[in-house]
Amino acid sequence: MATGFELTTALGPDKLFFGRMVGRESLGEPYRYEFHLLGNATDVDFDDLVGTHLSMKMDFGASDPRYFSGVITRISHAGSVRSHDHYVAIVRPQFWLLKQSADCRIFQDETIADVIKTVLKENGVTLCDELKETYQPVAYCVQYRESNFAFVSRLMEQVGISYFFKHSDSGHEMVLVDGTGSHSAIDGEATIPFHRIGTSGQHLAHIWDFQPGRAATSGSFVTTDYDFEKPRADLETKALYEGAYDLEQGEVYDYPGKYTEAADGEAYTKVQLQARQVADSVGTGEGNVLGLAAGGLFTLEKFPRKADNIEYLLTETDLRIEGFDFEDPGDRRYTSDEDFERAFRIRFKAIPGDVTFRNLPRTPRPMMGGPQTAVVVGKSGEEIWTDKYGRIKVQFHWDRLGEKDENTTCWMRVAQAWAGSGWGSIFIPRIGQEVIVQFLEGDVDQPIVIGSLYNADQMPPYSLPDNQTQSGIKTRSTKAGTNETFNELRFEDKKDEEQIYLHAETDFHRVVENNDTLEVGLSKGEKSGEGNQTIDIYNDRTITLEKGNDSLTIKEGDRTTEIKKGDLTLTVSEGERTETIENNDALTIKSGNHSIDVDSGTSKITAARSIKLVVGGSSIEITSSGITLKAPKIEIKGDTKVDVSSAMTTVKASGIMTVKGSVVKIN
User: Fold this and answer.
1) In what side-by-side order are the strands of the sheet with 627-630?
2) Contact 131, 174 (CB under 8 A)
3) pLDDT at 667 over 80
4) Quick one: how far is CA 358 from the chain centroid?
5) Per-residue pLDDT tens for 172-225?
6) Alpha-carbon gap, residue 414 to 435, rounded angstroms
7) Is the peptide bond preceding residue 304 cis, with omega within 30 degrees of 0?
8) DSSP helix/strand/coil, 20
9) pLDDT tens-digit map of 413-432
10) Where is the segment annotated Disordered (predicted)?
11) Could you tell me if 235 and 224 are in contact, meaning their C-beta atoms sit under 8 angstroms apart?
12) Core vs surface per residue 567-598: b (16+ CB within 10 A) or e
């Protein structure tokens, strides 16, 4: 039995009744229904309606009933119609309410489809998942200062997901689709005849105006990207239009494609070209078929151009439904089958059913207006958290969901002063430090770290402004380092106190592959007459010359070697030892002995004037004129024989002379 219109609102029955509705439904857009309602002012409180659900059942008996439902997002008083107050209610899907909320959050290692569904479900959107494609996880996906509606919309446009809405007596649901296999036939009879106005059969549900056509679109879509892990890889991909006419010149080239694998690039370019191809074969029409709704399929028949009697996908509908004759002073309402043709009109757009519908990208990506600061984070118990590329993870100040651990963000590359193949500079920001984060192309999904900042918790190594003339690099030992454990290179630029200070906390290893020159006491290349070198070593010192000479020249001054406790050993394994002293040479042994051993060869001491050996009151003096032995007692012993031979020999004793032998021969 036909009932016409059944309206349900939060006010309950018999408070408002349906007058008129105009609306638009589009694939990939929230619908908008404008309901004109009639009632009494005393029964309508706007606070009781805004944000509540409205539903309407339209049933004229000639076909299956059709339902319309949604959330009242605006209600207004539009005057009066005879004895009734006239209200206008704007009704939209639950999804539209996502425009009223915004967030900043990070998704990691999830597919774009899963991110979309997560946000929709969190916001109370009832979903029907008709997605057929396979989506690869993305490492990093950020929503930043954009509404939940804009975030979901741009993600869907990026990967080619669209949506429409189905209505029933229990409400409405959002249907996610991504290809021709995601759509099904409209409710009711899906094969619809074409009858021109004034021809037989027009009293039936039919289409009376249909205008198929073709339009020029882009011929190809090309993009590329860069992957730092495969810096020489060619990631350019291209999708070509396979239409019946030549659009080779209509190439769209865009950058970046936001992918690192060629297969992902091929999927992206295909989606973007398909979005541009939708306009190629859009047909428009008008009829009174109640089941015509965006997202549904129908088959046209009896159209004069037989080639156009095919299956179509409805991409947009404009509805006009009359439930009340605003011009009839008798308050006539449309309820019967005979009223249906007058009560319902629909204009629509459709594309062939074998054409994949994609929405053109129209939702702007949030552009980062400049760099941000963040805090370096990592695994609990660690002080440095990095990977083989020197990347780090951070916690943004706006991230209220991050746990300040190694899972907070994606790995972020860190800019260095120099970056070569196995050479360059490397400073890895440590956990707790504040860093500057920039975004490639202004893209929130592509952060890089470009520097570090001091703050009240992370103060400079030198007290400022007192030490404002000091510059340098000061590190911190890890793990569990303190202010007392560090390596440092510091420059002091205060006039007349200039200094370079180098500190190694444990070891200092210096490698010079050629010459090493140290000049002390030079000022602007000139000898200043000032400058000392002091070396303090608290343990061993070893100097090894693999090959070559060791030379020490003291042009003016003294050299002192003092060993307070220990030995001095000089070993010449091969070669000779030569010492040349231009003036005096003195050796003093205060305690102990002095020994010279010549294991092989001779020992020779040469003096121009004399050589004198003195032990107490005894001495041996050798001069160029003779040798003098002087001692309290002199003994000359020969185990076998003693010969004294000369041209003249004098033996003289001031006292007793004893010459003794078993045989004494004189001459």
Assistant:
1) 610-615, 618-623, 627-630
2) no
3) no
4) 30
5) 999 999 999 999 999 988 999 999 875 555 557 899 999 999 888 888 999 999
6) 10
7) no
8) strand
9) 999 999 999 999 999 999 99
10) 461-480
11) yes
12) eeeeeeeeeeeeeeeeeeeeeeeeeeeeeeee
User: Residue 399 and residue 575: Cα distance in Å, rounded?
Assistant: 75
CATH architecture of 220-279: Irregular (4.10)
Q: Which residue has the higher pLDDT, 95 or 661?
A: 95
How far is residue 476's CA from residue 416's CA, in Å, rounded to a whole number? Answer: 19
- What is the pTM assigned to this prediction? 0.83
Which of 364, 176, 138, 140 shows the shortest CA–CA distance to 268?
138
pLDDT in tens, 543-586: 888 888 888 888 887 878 888 887 778 777 777 777 777 777 77
Q: Scanning the structure block, which residue is given the tokens 């021969």? A: 665
Pairing of strands 53-59, 102-107: unpaired
188 close to 63: Cβ distance less than 8 angstroms: yes
Determine the 3-state secondary structure of 473 from DSSP: strand
Q: What is 1-213+282-366's CATH topology?
A: Pnp Oxidase; Chain A (2.30.110)
Measured CA to CA, the distance from residue 253 to residue 236 in angstroms comes to: 10
Closest to 36 in 3D by CA, of 72, 90, 96: 90
DSSP string, 25-62: EETTEEEEEEEEEEE-GGG--GGGTTTSEEEEEEE-SS
- The span from the CA of 273 to the CA of 119, in Å, is 27
- 572 token code pair: 């010449």
What values do phi and psi take at 182, rounded to 5? -90, -15
Question: What single letter denotes the amino acid at residue 380?
Answer: S
393, pLDDT greater than 60: yes
Bridge partners, residue 167, by sequence:
172
Domain with CATH 2.30.110.50 in the chain: 1-213+282-366
Q: Of 258-267, 344-353, 585-594, where does mean pLDDT reach its minimum?
A: 585-594
Tokens at 96, concatenated:
């539209």
Q: What angle do CA 491, 493, 497 make, to 5 degrees?
A: 100
410 pLDDT more than 70: yes
